[in-house]
Amino acid sequence: MSPLLNRLVPQKKRMPADDLRDAWERAERLLQYAEHHEARWFWETDAKGRLTYLTPSVQETLESFGISTIGSLLSDVFVFDQSDIERARSLTFHLVSRTPFSGYAVRGRKGLSECSWSISGQPWIESDGGFRGFVGSGEDLTQLRTHEDEIKRMALADSLTGLANRQRMEHAIAQLLHSPSGECRPIALLLLDLDRFKAVNDTLGHPTGDILLKQVSQRIVNVVGDAGIVGRLGGDEFEIVLPSETDRRRIDYLAAAIISSISEAYSINGHTITIGCSIGITLAPEDGVDSETLVRNADLALYSAKANGRAAFHYFEQEMLETAKRRKQLEDDLRSAMTNGQLCLAYQPVVSTKSEQCVGFEALLRWEHPLKGTIGPAEFIPVAEEAGLIEALGDWVLRTAARDLSEMPAPVRVAVNVSPIQFANPSFPAKVMNVIAEAQVVPSRLELELTESVFLSDEETSEQMFNALKNIGVRLALDDFGTGYSSLAYLKNAPFDKIKIDQTFVRGAIDSANRNAAIIKAIVTLADTLDMETTAEGVEHQDELPLIRDLGCSHIQGFVYGKAMKKEEASVFLSQHRDRVPAIGYKVSRSDRAAVLQSAKIRIDKRLFDVVIRDLSASGLMLEFDQEFYVEGNEDVTVSMLEDQWIPGKICWRAGSKIGVNLDQALEPQEIGRLSS
Ligand code: C2E
Ligand code: MG
Ligand code: MG
User: How far is 273 from 332, CA to CA, in rounded Å?
Assistant: First the structure.
């Protein structure tokens, strides 16, 4: 019988023999149960610390590694586990001092490192006070340890790519930065963000996006090699740390190599995918001496790389931090502006080219900043979009514009600019509907201006959005046409009522030396075919009006008829110019352009025509035929303007009976003088 059982059996002096036997048997049953069914095992030593009992399974394990158990000193069988170094006192200490201990992590001697246990024990003191040894139990930690190790590994690695995760990178940066002497060691930190990854995820689905991320991380690892540590911070953001790197040329080279490797095409599930990436770089110690500052600064450099056309790497510069601070200030100010009534809407007239009447207004946001004066929307709308304020701002604009519209006489319309972020929100149509119902206006009097970026979102979702808005009955206008993606294929299916031709085309259209008029003409032709109206934006000068009219634009919006004005001024404007809006802009758009009315001849493909020169500059002419005239454009021509002198040139645009001609050789000032006198 094991001496341990002596401990387990009640030590009653005068116990009847049967009771005593029952007690022994019960104790043995319980011990067997505990040893077989629980991870727990038992041990016992004599007064000298030699093992007198050890659960057989543990005995077997240890002996299979050549460790003798029964009869050996407990402290020779088990060694203290180094990973439990917080424990101040050794096992031997307790054994010698005869004090109890619990939860000691131990391993078997002789390199039995794959097994680890936790043991507890207490001295076995007889009723007479004599010390007989130690009794105790043990528990298997091996499984628990493996599990813990796995959890630790998972907590430090990114589960998708297996790269280091954010915490591990932070830890690595902190370790690399700090030398034992306390001074900051140099490192280079590269923050990398994929361009167009969201589009891949949205169009081809997340599983494809995941495969792409894995391939991207592999490519980065291949380029970086053992020059640094690569981690994924989440989403499509990666981080690379180059220890002790100070050579900018080497960093430039690496960054460029990463960009070029990532930009090569991927083939995933039968799709060929191309993406790009931008990189922001910070250097320690000059840009920061802790992980947080370095990552923030790399982020600012990354932002700048993205803003400057992407597929580039930028180093952090102090100026970026200043800009970010100003932006943050603007963001804070904007938040309070929204609640303090510093925002208002101004209304710019839109005039029909045919009737010259004001058919409506575009609502433009204005911010009266208490210190900085008026701030234009081009400055603060992007801030609102980035700070997540645009929805609230957009809701306010929509509600205010609809309310103001309800006070304007029908059929005058109001157009409201809608940010792509608003357009992407599925609840946007419901908001529009509420606003219209609240203001009690006819839906077709409200026009929503969208930019071409709305086509970038998922095709199906944007189609649903278009349909929902069309069902409400509001009008849709495509704003700033020509500045974005200008994909004509999209236009075919989108239910726009109007295309607004961007000012950049209108400006200078009158100059026959550029192709703007030809572009406007092309847009108008397209819009006519699709049964859409056209507004020429940003018409400033009176002499541009005939051209815009001739090019066929149905509406004009610009300083030539008026700048954006307060709601009250807009209603005065309407009542004052009920029949016709007078052009108030400057008369001519360019001082070096002369308006002339001089007859001339033009030879096109051996045919000779009489024309009138309407205006001219040194490099070009606008000529008018006596009737609508058709040419392809781009034809070589010769023009006779002075006596019998024929000047060669090329047709660059055509609109109705007018054409623009670029002259091969610039006219001399005195020739211009003679022609325009
Ligand atoms: P946009 O929608 O293209 O508005 C036309 C802009 O051109 C306005 O600038 C207007 O003042 C200006 N403009 C009109 N005629 C002329 C002209 O003859 N010459 C010149 N030089 N400029 C002219 P603004 O008000 O500064 O607005 C800039 C942009 O800000 C708008 O461009 C629009 O995209 C955005 N925006 C304005 N209000 C809102 C709004 O409530 N919500 C959103 N999301 N964006 C808005
Ligand atoms: Mg607009
Ligand atoms: Mg516009």
Answer: 40
- Establish whether residue 209 lines the binding site of ligand 1, counting it when its CB lies within 6 angstroms of any ligand atom: no
Provide the β-strand partners of residue 132. none
**Distance between Cα 633 and ligand 3 center (Å):** 28
- Model pLDDT for residues 435-493, shown as the tens digit of each residue: 999 999 999 999 999 998 887 767 778 889 999 999 999 999 999 998 876 667 778 77
Q: What is the mean pLDDT of the chain?
A: 86
Amino acid at 183: E
CA pair distance 665, 620, nearest whole angstrom: 9
For the record, the structure tokens of 184 come out as: 């900051």
**Residue for token digits 């005869």?**
98
Least confident of 315-319, 473-477, 636-640: 636-640
The domain 157-316 is placed in CATH, from the list 3.30.70.270, 3.20.20.70, 3.10.580.10, 3.40.50.720, at 3.30.70.270
Q: E strand or H helix at 396, and its extent?
A: helix 390-406
Cα(478) to centroid(ligand 2), Å: 8
Query: Amino acid letter at 633?
Result: G
| Non-local CB neighbours of 299 within 8 Å, separated by 6+ positions | 191, 280
Q: Which CATH class is domain 594-676?
A: mainly beta
User: CA-CA distance, 9 to 51, in Å (whole number)?
Assistant: 20
Tens-place pLDDT, residues 355-404: 999 999 999 999 998 888 888 898 899 999 988 999 999 999 999 999 99
Please name the fold of domain 348-576.
TIM Barrel (3.20.20)
Domain range list for the chain: 39-146, 157-316, 348-576, 594-676
- Shortest-distance ligand to the CA of residue 481: 3
Helix pair angle (377-386, 390-406), 10° resolution: 130
Tell me the pLDDT tens digit for each residue of 548-582: 999 999 999 999 999 999 999 999 999 999 999 99
- Give me the mean pLDDT over the 11-16 stretch: 60
Phi, psi at residue 100, to the nearest 5°?
-70, 155
pLDDT digits (tens, 9 = 90+) for 649-661: 988 787 778 888 8
CB of 411 shorter than 6 A to ligand 1 = no
pTM here?
0.61
The residue whose CB lies within 8 Å of the most ligand 1 atoms, and thus the one to mutate among 364, 395, 422, is 364
Question: Distance between CA atoms of 252 and 244, rounded to whole angstroms?
Answer: 15
Q: Quick check: 126 pLDDT over 80?
A: yes
Pairing of strands 533-537, 498-501: parallel
Q: Which ligand is nearest to the CA of 454?
A: 1
| Pocket-testing residue among 414, 417, 435, ligand 1, by greatest number of atoms within 8 A of Cβ | 417
User: Tell me, which fold does domain 39-146 have in CATH?
Assistant: Beta-Lactamase (3.30.450)
Does ligand 1 come within 6 angstroms of the Cβ of 417?
yes
State whether the beta carbon of 422 lies less than 6 angstroms from ligand 1. Answer: no
The minimum-distance atom of ligand 1 relative to the CA of 560 is 18
Query: Which ligand is nearest the CA of 375, by number?
Result: 1
Rg value, the chain, Cα: 41
Task: For residue 477, give the ligand nearest its CA.
Answer: 2
Ligand 1 centre to CA of 366 (Å) is 10
Question: Do the bridges between strand 413-417 and strand 358-369 make them parallel or antiparallel, or are there none, so unpaired?
Answer: parallel
Cβ–ligand 1 distance for 72 under 6 Å, the answer no
